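Trying the structure run again after the queue cleared.
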Amino acid sequence: MIASNIYFSLEMLLVGRFLGQTAFAGGNLAMPLLLIAYAVADMIAVGSSISIALRLGEGRTEEADRIFTAAVISASVLSTLTAVVITALGPFLFSMMGADAPLIKEAMAYLGVYTIFIPLTCLVFVFDNYLRICGKVRFSMVMNLVLAVLCLGFEFIFLFVFKKGIGYAALGTSLGMSITCIICMLPFIRGKMSLRFTRLKASKETLKEIFRQGLPSFLNNTSGRITSIVMNSLLLHLGGDIAVSIYGVFMNIDGIIVPGMYGVFDSLQPAIGYNWGAGKRERAGKIACCCVTALAIMCLFFTLILEFFPGRIFSLFLESNGSELSLAIHAITIMGLTYTVRWISYSCQSYSSAIGKNREATLLSICNALIFPLLMMLVLYGAGLDGLWAVTPAAAFLTSLTAVIIYFLKIRKTAS
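Done. Tokens:
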């Protein structure tokens, strides 16, 4: 997951270095809207993966194949429709956020290219889940590395060699994702996997189950994007392009850390679901404990990186003068505290989803990505930029406290 998402951060790094602050800010304004469309595919991938793993654990392979087929088609169609609507509303949304004409032009150039390719590129996330279900973990990892290399290679050629604009950065990533998706699809099309395409025969109950299982992930992703949109609007008002750029740098680092967290639990969610479905709850719990330990170590490590090297991290993305760099160091040091506790809520959310506790997982998703961040924006906005920098760590602390309460009141009794 780190490999498959690191190119988004490196893409912004190339944009900031080669195209400047306006293009960098435009890309970061467009990214939350773009990721809402990809979140639809991810929701279907996660939801169907849990359902498929449970069916395979129960020996119902034909039903697993039907869910797999329905999920692939649904992900492509729904993600495309979402992207088209978002792109059509793009200029209005960006102007409502306070962006000026040059910023809107850069954001729309970036968003429009991605929309053209999304019917295929959204399936990268879908087939990544299915490769792991079929036991092709190494192949999945290799393809994610290939994805990162292809995307960065195309972007470097377009931006550095041919000196093109931000639309070509999106084109480079889209080409890399499309090629990778086709390679990942081929084993399934040729019938070489334990999951096979079959005649589309999905019942309403099956689709409801997929959406219900994937809803926590979707709400977490989508709510987070809505929060980013609101945050960018407030930052534009209080600090201008530089404030948006600083937040964009943090979110690009977050785009490396969170996929790593996601990948730890997501890679073992099928194993947890399989053992849970097979009645081996003690084994499912042991797997979850390994995931929690890994998440804690990962988050604490990244916290130290952000606290000790904030200036170097910001300078990777943008060249800045003394005052801008001082502001960036101050902001990243505050926002970096988020990961001291974030592993707690994410562990509880992912484990709840893996064992079918969708209500609890959904609640934590909404609290983490929407309710507490918006609440903290309301409370801390009066403190100016310092208040906005403190929104993420404060929301993470409140969500983790909620997760501990949910675990001891709801989850622990079921798992024992």
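The mean pLDDT is 87. Worth checking whether this holds up in the mutant runs.
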